[in-house]
Structure formats: structure tokens, C-alpha cells
Records
---
Amino acid sequence: MKIAIIGAGNVGAMTASRIIDANLADAVLLDVVQGLAKGKALDISDARPIFDSKAAITGTEDFSDIRGSEIVVITAGLARKPGMSRDDLLKKNSDIIKGVSLQIKKYCPSSIVIAVTNPLDVMAYLVMKTTGFNPKRVMGMAGVLDTARFINILREKNKDIDEDKFLMMGSHGDTMVPVSRSKKISDSVFKEASERARNRGAEIVKYLGTGSAYFAPSASVFFMLKSIIKDEKKVMCASAYLNGEYGEKDVYIGVPVILGSQGIDKVIETELSEQEKKAFKESALQIHEGISKTL
């Protein structure tokens, strides 16, 4: 198994490191910055004896080196700066993603693609449209990360939560939709945790000053990769293409899915309350608006 990671910044490099440390697959780390991917790949490679990993990793600036990769992870693009929303990145990153997608179409025509670049839902849509791939083979990472953040914050208030009853659906942005089917937390705790999870990315950016989150995002990508490579068919929230599900069409948005060796096996339609339906619709409208600005 060969995985290509496009973008050797913090998220891309950390994702590559997790793959190699776990001996999950061989990896190609690519970045257009001269020497960046090669240097990081060497550093990651030197840790292999410590983890008893036989997985190979190479760094490159040449897109032809990703040829034949079964899975491609796209982390390339500009990261948020303090005060910058995900939508501020739309114009700058859309051109980058279109160019990367054409290279993926050329060298990895049968691959599964995971988009991580923000604004994530719009970028996943652009990847699907530019490559022409079956939407089941193109997805965005966000739901795994947003749900993990949501649960982690809830744990701070209540150690005994039923984690399988919480989801963070909708866009990877200000209109994400928290969903709870648990009776173990109060409405006030739910609302507070929802708001903190929604703003967690911006909070991290504020403290870092430069750059953005990468430990939890890379862990989220790794979680998805493992489910695909091992055909685990795990249920998780991911940005997926909807064609009528949840009353939405021609849009990528965070929903529960079953993820296996062929990509998204199924979009799971969770029954939503009227309030959740309204919030989900507003989230989808925002993504549609973003998509319209890139086409």
C-alpha cells in the first residue's frame, strides 16, 4: 500500500510520521518548497528502528513520484492566521487545490482522496469536480476532528459520557452542527461544549500565533486511513458528497458515514430534530455559497 501526502507542513508531516511509525503503509511526502519534504522524510525515516517499522518513506518535489498511490491526502495550502476565518482562505486555496487535483488525476487515477485543506468542505467538492472521481472516493477529514474535539471538551465536564451518542455534523466552520442523543449531560453543558468545539481551531491559532492545529488533525486523518486500509468499515463523521440525503444535493458536508476499502461505503441518515435540521440547512447553504465562488 502506498499513500501520498501532498503538503509537508505540520499536518502533512505529522500524518506521514503517524503512518510510518505504525507501519501502516509506505508513504510519499510531497511539497513544492525545495528540500522541505525530503528533509522531513529523512527525519521520519530515522525513527523507524525505534518503532520497528519497515514502512518506506520518500520526500519529493516531483508530482510524478506519487504515481500509483492508492490513497492521497491533501494538506497543501495556506494555514489560518490569527483573525482569519476558514472562509478567508477560500480564494487562495482553491487555486492550489485545483492544481493538485489535476496532478492526482494524472498520476493516481484510481486513488481514494482525503482533503484536509481549509475551507475543507468546499475543497473536497473542488477535488471531486476537478478529478472527476466517483464521490465515494473523495472525502474531507473534518467530522472526525470536530467530533473528537466536542467529546474531549465534554469529558472535561463529565467523565462518564456515552461517547457514541455525540456527533459534530455540518460544515467544518462556524456553522457546524452539534448532535447529542445522550441523557447524561445537561443542556447548559451541551451548549457550552458545542461553542468551545466550534471555536477550538481559532483558539489554537490564537495561542500559537503562527500556524494552526496539527496533532489532532493528523490523528484524525490516520484514523480514517486505518479504516480504509484495513477495511474496518468504521462509522465516523466525515465531509461526504450528498445526492439527496438530508434533503441536500451536490454538496460536501459533514455527516456520519461508513468508511472502508472502497472509500465511503454509505452515508448514514441520522434522524435530526427540527432545530438540528434548520442548523444543518444553514450550514449547507454556507458551503453552497463557498462552492459558487470557486466555479
---
Amino acid sequence: MADRTLSSQVVVGVVIVLVGVLLFLDTTGIYDTGPLFRYTPALFVLVGLYAIVVSGFRNLFGPLTLILVAGAIQLVTLDIFEWAELATLWPLVIVIFGLSLLAGRFDRTTPTTERSVVDTFSLFGDVERRVRGTAFERANLITLFGGTTLDLRDASPGERPARVNVTVLFGGVDIVVPRDWNVELDVLPVFGASEDSRLRVDADHETVDLVITGFVAFGGVELKD
């Protein structure tokens, strides 16, 4: 059965389209969207919350810091508080950092899934996923100012080729696959890099097992074994 959960790629795409439409309406004079942009910091608060939920509450420091800073900016923008009043809250960043260290100390396991579709969203932090089973179909990996590791060594494509789409901005993605998989790496790098670092071992078949596509800017995508 196809996985019908809302992917991170769809969520981010919808947000980008919405912002683009608002900018278009404003620049063309169709509608004055200036007042709406006063609530832009609230959008970053929602992004931070989304990143925490998608990571299974493992990635805390980066998203919580973003929520704290964006929330403070929103309160000042709406004239609810003054900067001087909020400046006393900066120790909360230290508290958040400590909580993230404690979370990592007590939970060092890599999340494992047998789902056919994998979605990750990394924001100012690291996300890891290990896939098992024989039904893997695709993965959507979004990394913004962070890192993502996708381990496919215990997985097999349900139908070949399986597909992985990456979107990387100021971050890195590592995809770990068996050495004998035939992989097509078709990622567009802009001030970044995409490379296959596996030791060369000829596969015993010509069928493509995995296709990796996407975009990376100021970061890298690396294929490992």
C-alpha cells in the first residue's frame, strides 16, 4: 500500500509557493501584503515546531533556538514587548542547549524503520534514519543548516530503482548503501558537491538499484558504504 503521509518536501514546497504568491501580489500592486509580512517570524516558529515533530523530538537545540528567537522577534514586531524586556531571556538558549545534550545522552539509538517511504527534515541539527526490509521505495531528505544520514545497508528496493530526493542548504547528507548497488547520482550542486565515495566493486547486475536526485547549495551529498 502506498504511503500517503504528508512529506516534508510537500510542506516546504507549499510554504515557498505561498511566500512567492504573496510577494508577487505585493510587487505587482494587486494587493498590499505588507501587513501580512509582519507575521513572518511566526512562520519560522511553525517551521521549528515542525522540525522537532518530524525528528521524533530528537533534534531539539536548533529548532528550539529558532523558535525562541523568531518568537521574540514576532512579539517585538507586534509591539507586545520591547527588546529590552526580552533581552533578559537569553539564558534560555543555554538551558535549551543543556536539554539537547541530555536528550542525546539518554537516547543514542538510530531510529529504524521498515516503511517504504522515508521523510526527514533537518534544521540546525542532525537527523539519522536506518531503513530495513525489502519494500523500500523512496526517501525525501531536506537539510537546512544541519546534517542527515540515511542508512540503506539493511534495505532492499521493493521495485527497482528506488529513489532518494535531497534538498540541501548549508548542510550535508550522507547516504549509506551496499557496495554492490548500482547507483545513479544526479544531484545538482551549486557551491557544493555530490560524490560517490564507495570503494569500487562491480555489481553482478546491470539494473539500477537507486537513483539519487535533488539540489545542494553550500553543502554536500556523499554516497558511502
---
Amino acid sequence: MRLGKRQVLTVVKKVDFGVYLGNDEERVLLPRKQVPAGVEPGDPVEVFLYKDSDDRLIATTNEPKVELGELAVLEVADTNKFGAFLNWGLEKDLFLPFKQQTSKVMLGDKCLVTLYIDKSERLCATMKVYDLLRTDSPYQKDDTVEGIIYDTSEEFGVFVAVDNQFSALIPKKEVYGKLRVGQTVKARVTAVKADGKLDLSVRDKIPMQMDKDAEMIWKRLQDLDGELPFNDKADPELIKEEFNLSKNAFKRAVGRLLKEGKIVIDDKSIKVK
């Protein structure tokens, strides 16, 4: 009998409160409300095995949203001081301990998880899914993809599971905006590494992105009564704080506005012409 897996077991005994499945050595209860109509001893039944609220092995004909060895995006149904509980399609919610969270989750959040069996032989969830992600994606450079953020690193960047299954990274230099664990992002493939992992960017190619950045800066100038209190030689951190752009991207966008004759630049500011 495999905990955390769907499997076909044989009915060995009928009782008032359900049927027992298995064989002479191992048996598990399928509660009466789960028993298919007309089932008799000797019949096969496909079930999923997990532990009930009293940590007893139990069978269900309901289909869970994730099994051992699989990945799934699940919603947080509740939290307590020990961790979170996820809706996975069964009566008893799935426990996600704090130690298995790559970022603290809240009620209503969604997270990419897999199952593991803890020291007490119970099924639990973990957000540490890096080793389960595939590296054989069909995507090529410049393809647009979608995925969920499952971890972040100050050193490397933002880790994404493309299509909830393929390994990808938004490198630190490409991280713009508020990107958080559980967020779904659309991105552009910038590279397919030798090991099959993807590098992503949430920004478009330079010409297209430059137009968007220029439009954003132009709108900000309107909001600031036509004057920005620094120019394109400003400190990179100030530019990032104000516009969430790298200094190079800012300079390109400002250059576009200058070429279009919309602005003038002096030693201290950028002004609408």
C-alpha cells in the first residue's frame, strides 16, 4: 500500500461503516460514503491513500490535486502558528509547515508544492520544489512564457516554474517591479542554458521596452508639473527607486524623449520642452 498515491486495491470485507481494501496482511478502510454502489468482496477499487485527522491510514475515491512525485499549485485555506493548510481536494487539508515555505504564505495565497512523507509518516507539502522541475522545455530564445514564482534569492534572482513544471530563473539583473513568491508572471526567454534551464526577463526587447519606458517617464513628468528634479546622470539607486529602471534603461528612454523633442536636460533636471 503506497501512501500518497492512487492505486487499485481489492475489496476484502464489507462492514456497516464501509469496506476494507487490501489483502490478508494489509487492510485499509474505505468509508461508507466513499464506497461505489454495488461493490462486493473481490472487486477492484481505485483509491488514494492518506492519513485522517487521527493519523490513521484511510482510503478515498476522491481525486487529490497532487500526489507524491507531482507538482501542483494549491491555495492556502488556513494558517496557524505551525504553518499553513492547503486545499488539495480532500476532506482533510494538506499541511504546509513553516520550514517548508520558501516565503511565508497567507490565507488565499497560491503556491507551487509537492508532497513528502514526514518523520511521523504523514503526508505534508513543501514549496522546495527545485529538484523536481524539468529541464526539457520546448521553449526557445524570445518565446513568451508564463509561470509561477516559487522562490527568490538575493544572490541569484527570482526562481520561476514555467507552466508549473519547467525550471527557470529571472536573473538578479533582470528583476524589476515587485516580484513575490506565488505570483504568476509572463516573461520572455532570454536564454536556454546548456543544462536545459531557462533564463527569463519580464521586460521586452530593448526597442519595444524603450518605447514603454519613455511613455512611463513622460507620464511621470506630466504628474510632476513638467519637471523631474534629476537628470540622466543621477545615481542608479535613485533612478531605480523612482522608476524601477536600470540607469541604462533610463538613459535610453530619456534619449528617446530628447530625440522626439519632448524634453530638455540641464545639469539638475529634466523638463518638458
---
Amino acid sequence: MSETANVLVEREGDVAVVTLNAPQVLNAFTPGMALEIADAMNAAVLAGARALLVTGAGRGFCAGANLADAGVGAGKSDVLGMMETYYKPLARAFVDAPVPVVTAVNGVAAGAGASLALAGDVIVAARSANFVFTFANIGLTPDCGGTWLVAHAAGRVRALEMALLGGKMSAEKAERCNLVTEVVDDDMLMDRAREIATKAAAMPTRTLALIKQQVRAALEQSFEASLQVEGECQQQAVLTEDFREGVMAFAERRPPDFKGR
């Protein structure tokens, strides 16, 4: 296991488990911790992890940004600069990861913490988990990609409900609103998240990265543009070793042995 004071990274085969580790503040992150999380995720991929599993230590997933340590409200006015330097790289570490990202949401995911939880490619929530956009309650607007994520997954009405009213959304309601992939009993959360991450890590990694690219294009572009992206991605997919292995395994009627190449 590698670790800093605020982030723990443990390799389990081809899966890297990244744990936000500030349980005394429900894993609320400082600007420095935001970069630590992003750096830990990126480093795990560079070290060969073929899937990431992100969760929080203690009673909650993440209570969002630690505004006191960020200096907000204490004369700090360059918020846009902070977003560019600290929070955008964190959001991109989730969405742009070239491997599947599974988030295991234990307890509260609030503010930017909710944005991070919902940025997983597969989102597994404990039954006791809840999601809350706390921003408007203190005079702020959503960040870390939360607006885009909720609006695209659940639509305008739910996005405004969360952002304007600032109330808690249960894990079950989040699942009904297409914000969460799966809800499980609390004691099954990590086992189920590991099962999903392990399955994803055994799949053709480069192809999964292309699929993520296609889905993002489908959300942002026209049908015609999406067709173009599909063709470009398929061209790249057929050049991978994993594609050749998949075809051979199918012909030989055996399970494929993908290497992520």
C-alpha cells in the first residue's frame, strides 16, 4: 500500500483502491488534497492499474471541499484560479481516466464530494448513503462537474431540485433518477464494488477507454458527430491486441485473456 496523510492507494491485482483518508472531517478535501487525489489516481494508472475503485474512510464518502482551508470567505477572491489549479484536475481525474472508475459511496456525499461520487463510471452506493448539493445553502454554485453530471444523468428537473433546494437525496432515489448504478446493503458495499472493479480490470482496457470516449461524445454532440466518433474509435479498437485475442477466443470457444493492450 502506498499512502499520504490524506490518500491511501492499495493495489489488489489489476485494481487500485484509492481511499480518501480524512475521516475526522468526513473526507472534506483541501486544495492540496484535491491534487493528491488526482495525482494518486493518475499514478495508479501509470503504474499499470486497469481499474480504479474510489471510496472514503470512516463514516462518509466525502463532505466536499474544506472551505476554511481553501480561504474562501476570508479575503480570497481568485476562486477561478483555484478551480483551474485544484478542482478541475480533480474532476478530470475521474472523468478522463483511461480505465474504468468505480465509486463506492459510503455515507454522505455532499457538495463537491457528491460531484466526485457521481463522476464514477460505475457508482455503487450503500443503502444508507445520501447525496446532497450543499452549495446553495451557503451561497455557492455547484462545481467539480456536478451540474453537467446530474443534468445529463437525471435531467433538468432533478438537477435543479438538487442544486436549488440543497436537500438530501437517498441512495434509492438516486438510483431511480439514474444517478447511481446500484444500491447494496451497507455491509456488502466494498465487496460488490471490488467485484465490479475486478471484472472491469479483466476486460480489454483500451477498448473500455474508447467506449468512455464514445459515451461522452454521445452526450455532447449530434447524432452525426457521434457516428463519426464511433467509426474512429472502432478503427482504433480493431488495432488492439485484445481485439485479436477476443476473436481468437470466440473461435476457439474459450474465455478471452485480455492484457489491456
